[in-house]
Amino acid sequence: MVEVQYIPDEGDIVWLSFTGQQGHEQQGVRPALVLTPRLYNQYGLALVCPVTNKQKGYPFEVPILSFANATTGVVLADQVKSIDWKSRTATLKERANPVVVERVKDKILLLLGK
């Protein structure tokens, strides 16, 4: 029997290891929102934003809305990262509401001056 490997997809909330971060960057094993589609992610990289339960009212926080309600807190849209999801052993936690993905992308566009 062939085991099908999980490949993250846009809108997935995955568990990731954010070890080796510095300063104000989120650290440790935590959920993250996947922003890139599976077609891109199949090559081993993905763009993600970490999720935290420590809401501080920053303008780039986006409240989580998920289908299973297993994830709480906010997505930190200003901490977008390109990660090697294979080496960080990404595992699916649940799916985010598509509205959250769009809100995070809108915040990232603001960061880029668009």
- Over the alpha carbons, how many angstroms does the gyration radius reach? 14 Å
Classify the helix fraction into a percent range. 10-25%
Structural class: alpha+beta
Q: In one word, what is the shape?
A: globular
- The appropriate CATH architecture is Roll
Strand content: 25-35%
Major sheet attributes: 7 strands, antiparallel
| Discrete helix count | 2
The CATH topology is given as SH3 type barrels
CATH class call: Mainly Beta
Domain tally = 1
Distance between the termini: 48 Å
The secondary-structure element order is EEHEEEEEH
Contiguous runs where pLDDT drops below 50 for at least 5 residues: none
Number of strands: 7
Rounded average pLDDT: 89
What would you say this structure looks like, in words?
The chain is built from two helices and seven strands. It is α+β, with helices and mostly antiparallel strands. It has one domain: SH3 type barrels, CATH 2.30.30.110. The longest helix has 14 residues, at 98-111. It is globular and about 50 Å long. It starts with 11 loop residues before the first strand and ends with a helix.
What are the main properties of this structure?
about 110 residues; alpha+beta; SH3 type barrels; 7-stranded antiparallel sheet; 2 helices; 7 strands; about 15% helix; about 30% strand
Task: Reconstruct the topology from this structure.
Blueprint: E1 12-18, E2 28-34, H1 38-41, E3 45-52, E4 61-63, E5 74-76, E6 81-84, E7 91-95, H2 98-111
Antiparallel strand pairs: 1-2, 1-7, 2-3, 3-5, 3-6, 4-5
